[in-house]
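Archive entry. Fields below.
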Amino acid sequence: MINHSSGYYYSTIAQNKWGIAAFLTFLVLIIIWGVHGIGFIYLILLFLFYNLGMLSLSIWEKNKRTETLKEIFNKIKNNEYENSGEIVLPSYLSGIQSEIRSMYEKIQSDMDYMNKLEKVRSEFLGNVSHELRTPIFTIQGYIETLINGAIDDKNVNKQFLEKASRHTNNLNNLLNDLIDISMMEAGQMRLSFCYFNAEEYFSSVVNEFIPQAEKKSLRLYLHKVPSKLQLFGDKEKIKQVMTNLIQNAIRYTETGGVEIKVEEEERSGKITVSDTGIGIAPEYLDRIFERFFRVNKARSKEAGDSGLGLAIVKHILDAHGTKIEVQSKLNEGTSFSFRLKK
Ligand SMILES: Nc1ncnc2c1ncn2[C@@H]1O[C@H](COP(=O)(O)OP(=O)(O)O)[C@@H](O)[C@H]1O
Ligand SMILES: [Mg+2]
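PREDICTED_STRUCTURE:
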């Protein structure tokens, strides 16, 4: 519908049933004039009055439509509908009922999504503050104890300083993980993909963890990697994935060891990190990839873990177009695996 006053009448005539009726009446009048020969001036006057009547009817109908729509939009704005099925338009507007209903559904789903995001955001902030508080309070505690006299006590002063320093490291790790995850979630992860030789790459990555495994008397074993296998990915980010998986495996294993396997498949290489550790109960298997989720909070925190490791792993593998799989048996062990294109 055109809004300008001059165009309005003509557009009404063109688009509206009243306009068509007026035109038909005009034709009928012409015919009557031809047959009966009534005065031309009367004919024109009749035509004008008739059209004025039609025009006001048309305006009245337009206003009625506008009012109905206004009422419906206000109800949507004030959340007065429970679902889109409650939006019922009168017959003269039934043509746009499904559009209005689907618009309502879209608004509702956008709002639900935004509310969910907001909830996730505030939960995340709450978690972050909670996680930061622990190491900060601990460091503060040691420093205050030292200031209050422990600094001169040779039995504890070095020990307290070392503990404070360890918690500073934990704090630093947590901040680095937080920076990583917020970059990834903001879609700012830059990846530089290349082909690399799997045998060389995985031997060097796994070797770095031998001292850590030896400290716990665990066996760390890399199965023979197919020597010509070339895999495609971001080497640094995949190293971050392997570091998280191997560190977890060592952390949550007391006897036995950790094995890493790289197998060639038709279009990919499958990497598996498995351990003979404490395992994960089935009800937690989906949750371990959530930010800050830990099966045993005290144990993981004591070890200085951020609880963000597997969330970061999942993001990195998502960005590689692949996913992480986990299998675990309580008290028997866990195995994580993922694929990379070859
Ligand atoms: N290899 C594993 N064996 C047993 N539990 C594991 C293993 N890897 C991860 N988990 C569980 O998943 C949780 C989340 O892991 P992660 O995101 O790396 O956090 P963090 O290691 O910092 O606690 C851990 O707290 C632990 O409970
Ligand atoms: Mg971890």
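CURATOR_NOTE: The first strand starts at residue 194 and ends at 197.
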